[in-house]
Write a structure and sequence with these properties.
Helix content: 25-40%
Largest sheet: 7 strands, antiparallel
Number of domains: 1
Structural class: alpha+beta
Mean pLDDT: 82
Number of strands: 7
Strand content: 25-35%
Strand order of the largest sheet: 6-5-4-3-2-1-7
Low-confidence stretches: none
Distance between the termini: 49 Å
Radius of gyration: 16 Å
């Protein structure tokens, strides 16, 4: 029996991108191009790394960020890193680069040469949302308070 082709759920993807925009604006505050914010991440009693938000470019309607994490496992694994575009006119944030891979499509045939999941773009934006939500819930800025 043939499996039905994946159909991009635009409403869910847009909802995720809108929520990520709100999370990022809470974490960023007023940063300009070239500035970086470090969010210290903690478990119960231990600091286990930092979430880094670096503003790469600012324009009237868009901002480009690099979001990355550093921690105790950096010597063993490549830490997660992504580039995110914030679209201020529509209040959305979209992952455009993850671990040096760019230009994600809304859906992929599976299997494919890069082994992307059919809903890879949605999964990356959900991952960003979970990452940011963890930073909001369990992190603290090392320079400015985070709006809750």
């Amino acid at each position: 029996m043939a499996r039905a082709a994946y159909v991009t759920d635009l409403k869910t993807l847009q909802g995720e991108c809108t929520a990520n925009y709100l999370r990022l604006t809470r974490l960023l505050g007023e940063l300009d191009a070239g500035e970086v914010r470090e969010i210290a991440l903690r478990g119960r009693d231990t600091r286990f790394g930092s979430l880094w938000l670096e503003v790469l470019e600012c324009a009237p309607y868009t901002t480009i960020l690099r979001v990355s994490q550093s921690g105790v496992l950096d010597a063993f694994i490549d830490p997660p890193r992504m580039q995110v575009h914030l679209y201020h006119d529509v209040r959305m944030a979209e992952v455009t680069d993850f671990q040096r891979q760019r230009h994600f499509r809304g859906r992929y045939r599976y299997p494919n040469a890069r082994m992307h999941q059919p809903d890879e773009k949605l999964q990356l934006n959900r991952f960003l949302g979970e990452w940011l939500e963890h930073g909001l819930a369990h992190g603290h800025s090392l320079d400015l308070p985070i709006a809750r």
